[in-house]
Amino acid sequence: MPPVYVTVNWPDPPAPAAERRFSLANVRWLFNGTAALAAVLLLPVANDALHVCGDEYGVVYAGVLAAAVLETVAAGRRQPRWRFRVFTFLMAAVTVATPAGLHAISYPITGV
Questions:
Q1: What is the pTM of this model?
Q2: Cβ atoms < 10 Å from Cβ of 76
Q3: Strand, helix or coil at 56?
Q4: Which distant-in-sequence residues (6+ apart) come within 8 Å of 35 by Cβ?
Q5: Cα gap 68→96, rounded to integer Å
Q6: Residue 70 in contact with residue 86, Cβ under 8 Å?
Q7: I need a surface site. Which of 70, 80, 99, 109 has the fewest CB within 10 A?
């Protein structure tokens, strides 16, 4: 008589619940709020600096790239850097509230 093989298929154990990646409870409102307020207060200074640079959209692109790099560096740290967040908010405000920023937005779309 040939041997008989018995296979028991047990169900896989349930997977552990995935950790939530983002929650509004984890947002530091005071940290981000003061950084945004500081960026709004620095906006006239940034606008004057862009005028000195000739209102070139390339300066805005470089600033946005620098802000992205700084935020990436700060993401690996336990304590985020307030100065980096202020710079990020400042570059976001510069992009939508200054002539150079609006030119930086419109140039890829219109080519002018």
A1: 0.73
A2: 6
A3: coil
A4: 82, 85, 86, 88, 89
A5: 17
A6: no
A7: 109
